[in-house]
């Protein structure tokens, strides 16, 4: 990779951390005390220079022309503040700690230097040279989607690795040779233990949403994975907070890092408006949620449990509001189908548990509704961050029953949200203003004819006899269930097998 502004053709070696000071680009970091951008004796003696960063272009930041063209083809012409601040350092090979709000553009902030650094590398089977770690399958898939056009500019191959699906296809891709792996920690460690992948050739490592990794208990695995990468490689870590052990990860694995943080004043996220709607009881809540879901734009409704998410999505769809659910009990193909339906507009409403709060990045979500208020303030902020992304405005509604008011008030105080609660019903003016134009009724899709025989096949045979046919609904109980009644371990007749919820 050629350093930005370099005229003598100097190339960074793998262990280089930053460009020679005489030819480095101006420091555009947040000028915090911890920043040591291009810290040399001459630099420390020189008077501080104020740099205006608001009008920088990708080319001025040193982004290679093939990547600039790939971005332009996607309609991305100007960088966001977190990209403006981090790219001079990341493109020059330095370790970077980035702290940006959700929707601040951090995926491109690490994707651009990752692809730029790896261009021209020789591809070796099962030995990637770039690694991105993500906490959830959805986020890993969406990082891959953002990376792919940039990687295509240099002919780089990407493989996405996560659990919940057979590993055979992922292993085949690794054996064929990939340049960049985007992975969730659990499945990646599985493949490492089986010696199906080696990280000894990794030159650039990215840890995205490290704080969410900590929340999910993944930091021990992340630590083992980072320890398997070369110590001289470049590392970029992005996290909203540094608690729950993230700071230890930074101290151990990032060397002479530069810290960048995008604050409220510089954030590209437009105004996010918060509303708290008090309702008198469960029936008033049901009517209010139905009304809030009835607008024409995309909206995400958050529930606390998988059962309630599935139930509400079905109720809304049956009432003419096309909806899909997203939660841990869905198989990966089902998750992909539901997200695709929501992204394409086939479904206007996504009903989700907290699995979607940090892993789903869909543009133009105009409304987030906390149908069930979350348990703690971080979850509130993560859920709410699904709207007002990438320069768009958005609204956030929290629906509160009488017995939830005290806990919700405390949660909002911790989240730093100041809002005046409103007593509402479904047809109140504040509700109608948020709903806007009502979407036309859409009849639910008819149930396929094949469903009825399948339901019959799942019934327990007469006289306690177990079926021995190979039909989808018959056969012996799974997992060595008891004989005689066709019941599984949970005691249900013909129930679904348990789903592996691991990321």
Give a short overview.
The protein is of the alpha/beta class and 503 residues long. It folds into three domains: 21-261, Rossmann fold (3-Layer(aba) Sandwich), CATH 3.40.50; 272-435, P-loop containing nucleotide triphosphate hydrolases (Rossmann fold), CATH 3.40.50; 452-503, no CATH class.
Describe the protein:
Helix content is 34%, strand content 13%. The chain is built from 18 helices and 14 strands. The strands form two sheets. A seven-stranded parallel beta sheet has the order 3-4-2-5-6-1-7, with helices on both faces. A seven-stranded parallel beta sheet has the order 10-11-9-12-13-8-14, sandwiched between helices. Helix 7 (185-193) crosses helix 9 (219-227) and helix 15 crosses helix 16 (405-415). The radius of gyration is 25 Å and the shape is globular.
């Amino acid at each position: 990779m050629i350093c930005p502004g370099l005229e003598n053709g100097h190339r960074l070696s793998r262990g280089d951390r930053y460009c020679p000071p005489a030819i480095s680009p101006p420091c555009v970091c947040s000028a915090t005390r911890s920043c040591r951008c291009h810290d040399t004796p001459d630099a420390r003696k020189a008077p501080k220079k104020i740099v205006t960063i608001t009008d920088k272009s990708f080319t001025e930041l040193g982004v290679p022309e093939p990547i600039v063209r790939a971005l332009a083809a996607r309609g991305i012409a100007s960088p966001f503040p977190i990209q403006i601040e981090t790219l001079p350092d990341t493109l020059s090979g330095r370790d970077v700690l980035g702290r940006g709000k959700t929707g601040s553009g951090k995926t491109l902030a690490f994707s651009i230097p990752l692809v730029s650094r790896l261009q021209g590398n020789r591809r070796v089977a099962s030995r990637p040279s770039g690694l991105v770690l993500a906490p959830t399958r959805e986020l890993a898939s969406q990082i891959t989607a953002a990376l792919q056009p940039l990687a295509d500019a240099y002919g780089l191959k990407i493989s996405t690795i996560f659990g919940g699906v057979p590993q055979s296809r992922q292993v085949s891709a690794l054996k064929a040779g990939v340049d960049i792996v985007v992975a969730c920690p659990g499945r990646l460690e599985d493949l490492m233990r089986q010696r199906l992948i080696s990280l000894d050739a990794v030159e650039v490592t990215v840890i995205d949403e490290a704080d969410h990794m900590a929340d999910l208990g993944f930091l021990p695995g992340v630590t083992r994975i980072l320890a398997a990468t070369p110590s001289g490689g470049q590392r970029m870590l992005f996290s909203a907070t540094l608690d729950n052990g993230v700071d230890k990860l930074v101290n151990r694995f990032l060397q002479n890092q530069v810290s960048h943080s995008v604050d409220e004043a510089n954030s590209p996220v437009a105004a996010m408006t918060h509303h708290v709607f008090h309702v008198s009881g469960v029936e008033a809540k049901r009517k209010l949620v139905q009304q809030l879901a009835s607008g024409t734009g995309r909206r995400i409704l958050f529930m606390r449990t998988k059962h309630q998410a599935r139930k509400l999505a079905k109720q809304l769809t049956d009432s003419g509001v096309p909806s899909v659910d997203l939660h841990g009990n869905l198989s990966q193909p089902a998750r992909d189908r539901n997200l695709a339906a929501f992204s394409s507009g086939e479904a206007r409403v996504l009903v989700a548990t907290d699995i979607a709060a940090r892993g789903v990045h869909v543009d133009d979500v105009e409304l987030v509704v906390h149908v069930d208020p979350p348990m703690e303030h971080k979850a509130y902020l993560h859920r709410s961050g699904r709207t007002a992304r990438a320069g768009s405005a958005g609204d956030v509604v929290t629906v509160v029953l009488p017995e939830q008011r005290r806990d919700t008030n405390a949660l909002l105080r911790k989240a730093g949200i100041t809002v005046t609660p409103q007593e509402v019903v479904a047809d109140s003016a504040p509700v109608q203003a948020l709903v806007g134009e009502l979407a036309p009724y859409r009849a639910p899709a008819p149930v396929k004819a094949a469903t009825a025989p399948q339901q019959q096949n799942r019934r327990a045979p007469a006289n306690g006899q177990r079926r021995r046919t190979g039909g989808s609904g018959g056969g012996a109980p799974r997992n060595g269930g008891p004989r005689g009644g066709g019941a599984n371990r949970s005691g249900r007749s013909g129930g679904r097998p348990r789903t592996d919820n691991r990321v």
